[in-house]
Amino acid sequence: MIIISYIDKEKLGALFKWYMQVVGDSLVSVLLVDRDGLIVNILTRDPEKIDEKKFIGAFSSLVELVLKKLTLDFDLGTFGAGTFDTDRYRFIFCESGSDHVLVSILHPRALVDDIFPYTYLTADKVARIIDGELPVSPVIPKIKRDTELEKIKRKMDYYQGTIHSSNYVYKLSVIGDEGVGKTSMVQRFVHGIFQVDYKATIGTFISKKECKFDELNTSVRFMIWDLAGQPQFERLWPDYITDSRAGIIVFDITNRESFNQVKKWYEIITEVALPDIILILVGNKVDLKNTRVISIEEGTQLAKDLGIFYLETSAKTNENVEDVFEWIALQIINKKIDDVKDSLLNKQIEEGLKYIISSPQLNILSKYFSKQLDYCIGRSDTKDIIKYLDILKAIEKNKL
Fold first, then answer.
1. Tens-digit pLDDT profile for residues 159-214
2. CB-side exposure of 112: number of CA atoms within 13 Å?
3. Is residue 115 exposed (0-12), middle (13-18) or buried (19+ Cβ within 10 Å)?
4. What are the residues facing 172 on neighbouring strands?
5. Would residue 174 count as lying in a domain?
6. Residues 312 and 177 in one domain
7. Strand, coil or helix: what is 367?
């Protein structure tokens, strides 16, 4: 018998309410059970229509059979997710940590493929609530599978453009094979911590973080989607990555197979993300120099072949982790550079010395500095180039 440690049932209840809300009426009830079939928490959509005591009694006889199979799956190291149908209900069972299972009870005609992305996301949040080490938001964002017509409309809306605002949240997907250190990178950036024994992500985990740039008087807010890299989640990847504004493709410099899979991840994200997505390739675990199998030259060349940028990091030592996210934020700002106001730039333009410059010279300078952005990684270098480009644009608008 498993002894259940303290679990914040208030947080579980809030999460279950979001889960029910986002899935809709097809979700009758959601339960958390341990591996002995003991129900830890339950939320039913309409308790007046369903007698929970009788419901639980009938459910317990079923769950015992299913959990036996799931236990075998656990022992094999898989996530033990699956479906089971009866005449009256359809069930989704999904591992939520090593000792618990999230059970979703649906109407018999519910489309489980549409619900699975939410189930895995909820299961991951439940596991983190049980773990209790990091804050967990109960909010579950809407995940929508676009039709071809909707995809075209989304692209048109994007190209019509929206002004960069620090109030806008940009979706950033972190992708790559399992075990490459994606979660370690995200938690290092978001919470400033590193743990050796991170539990594998179930489906995806979502975090929020803001990059502030006082020098530019602006900021970029990210919603970071940390995707599980295990093959059993492959059918969910397009749903989770859709509408990404930016992406980080991560491989492990000590694992050649993870490096060989980079092109696959590149194709997956560019297929469903926003047009002109900002991407960076990251070689992680540079602290493991003695077991390195991928050279800097190989990583740089692959990034060049894909037409994206390359940087190496260590989530353990925090080397370059913040630089990766800041670089992406600066690229977002740079794409809307005309809308970045203020501070030192206008003052420098107004108070600076006046020189005569011809139109061809101005074009040459603009192309030169724009090209330099391709080689900037650090915050200070990129900030200087953006400053120069702003000054040139001001000259072109006859401010000087």
1. 455 555 666 789 999 999 999 999 999 999 998 888 877 777 888 889 999 988 88
2. 17
3. buried
4. 224, 246
5. yes
6. yes
7. helix
At 115, give phi and psi (nearest 5°): -95, -30
The band of 377, judged by pLDDT with boundaries at 50, 70 and 90, is: low
Q: Are 352 and 323 within one domain?
A: no
Average pLDDT, the chain: 79
Look up the pTM and report it: 0.70
Is residue 3 a part of any domain in this protein? no
Which helix (H) or strand (E) covers residue 90, if one does? strand 90-95
Sequence letter at residue 28: V
Same-domain pairing of 194 and 306: yes
Exposed, middle or buried: residue 383 (CB in 10 Å: 0-12, 13-18, 19+)? middle
Selection from 138, 140, 129 nearest residue 14 by Cα: 138
| CATH code for the domain of 235 | 3.40.50.300
Most confident of 73-87, 190-204, 305-319: 305-319
CB atoms within 10 A of CB 1: 7
Residue in this structure with the two tokens 């650090």, named with its chain if needed: 378
Among residues 292, 308, 335, which one ends one of the domains? 335
Note whether residue 1 is domain-resident: no
Please give, one letter per residue, the 3-state secondary structure of 299-356: HHHHHHHHCCEEEECECCCCECHHHHHHHHHHHHHHHCHHHCCCHHHHHHHHHCCCCC
Does 254 lie in the same domain as 157?
yes
Tell me the one-letter amino acid at 130: I
- Give the end-to-end CA distance of the chain in Å, rounded to a whole number: 78
Q: Please, where are the H alpha helices in the chain?
A: 9-23, 52-75, 112-131, 148-160, 182-191, 237-241, 256-260, 262-272, 296-306, 321-335, 343-351, 359-372, 379-396
Indicate whether 141 belongs to any domain.
Answer: no
* Residue where a domain terminates, one of 282, 305, 335: 335
Which is higher by pLDDT, 169 or 72?
Answer: 169
Give the structural domain span for 43: 9-131
Is residue 352 predicted with pLDDT exceeding 50? Answer: yes
Domain count, the chain: 3
Cβ atoms of 59 and 42 closer than 8 Å = no
- Shared domain for 125 and 93, answered yes or no, is yes
Residues 324 and 176 in one domain: yes
